[in-house]
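Researcher: I've been going back and forth with a colleague about how Thioredoxin might be arranged in three dimensions. Neither of us has a model we trust, so I'd like an independent prediction. The organism is Schumannella soli, in case that matters for your notes. Sequence below.
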Amino acid sequence: MTGELRVPRHRNLRRTAAFSIPYRLWFDTQLVLKALAIKYESRVQVITVEATSNPITSERIAGSIFPTFQLWKDGHPTTTYVGPHAMPDLEKAFEATLI
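Model: Here is an independent structure prediction for Thioredoxin. You can compare it with whatever you and your colleague have in mind.
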């Protein structure tokens, strides 16, 4: 079980396959972003947009597939990743963008 993430149980919500998979992807994504934000805090600003609360901004920046990661440099997007990605993949993208 080393390295495995545990999804917290919700008292008032039944755990179904339809709920568990998207929640797991969201939960994993949040952990990856937090870790990258800490590692690169002096060089990178990590911003997250809650798509359901900000649909117009989300649609303009990332479209409708979640999660979508965009790396920006000098005010312009340089790289876009759609779907969940492992931390090493995103870390390589961060490093390439910082060069």
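Researcher: What would you highlight for our discussion?
Model: I'd start with this: The two ends are 37 Å apart (CA to CA). After that, consider the following. Strands lie at 68-73, 76-82.
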